[in-house]
Amino acid sequence: MRICLVSSYLPQRCGIAAYTASLARGLSTAGERAVTVLSERGALDGEIGGVVSTPVFHRSEDYATGVAARASALRAELVHVQHSSDIFGFDERLPRLLTILRSR
């Protein structure tokens, strides 16, 4: 299964980034063939231990279309957004991202 995790990621020091790294490693170790973290800019860029991190968004921007386009380009079968209001906000961007993903 092609899995995309949308989250902050290492080397950012926060619980969400650490959780996402642990989840991604666990999925990769469990045999998932493609685990990609669509991470916030400033995160690692590249592959480590079977997990690919691709910085694609910044919390201050309108991230919905860009994140959805990247997940679609990767042909993601599952997209997991690790929500935190300080990363994704309380505005319309996250619901719009989910709507776009659902329509694809």
Protein architecture, described:
This protein is an alpha/beta fold and 104 residues long. 38% of the residues lie in helices and 26% in strands. It has four helices and five strands; from the N terminus they run βαβββαβαα. A five-stranded mixed β-sheet has the order 3-4-2-1-5. Strand 3 and strand 4 form a beta hairpin. Helix 2 packs parallel to helix 4. The chain is globular and about 35 Å long. The two termini are 16 Å apart. The mean pLDDT is 94.
In short:
The protein is an alpha/beta fold and 104 residues long. 38% of the residues lie in helices and 26% in strands.
Output the keywords.
104 residues; alpha/beta; 5-stranded mixed beta sheet; 5 strands; 38% helix; globular
Task: Report the average pLDDT across residues.
Answer: 94
Low-confidence blocks of residues: none
Sequence of secondary-structure elements = EHEEEHEHH
Q: How many helix segments?
A: 4
The tally of strands reads 5
Give the percentage of residues in beta strands.
25-35%
Which sequence of strands runs across the widest sheet?
3-4-2-1-5
From the helix content, strand content and strand pairing, which structural class follows?
alpha/beta
Helix content: 25-40%
Shape: globular
Rounded to an integer, what's the Rg over CA atoms? 13 Å
Give the terminus-to-terminus CA distance: 16 Å
How is the main sheet built?
5 strands, mixed
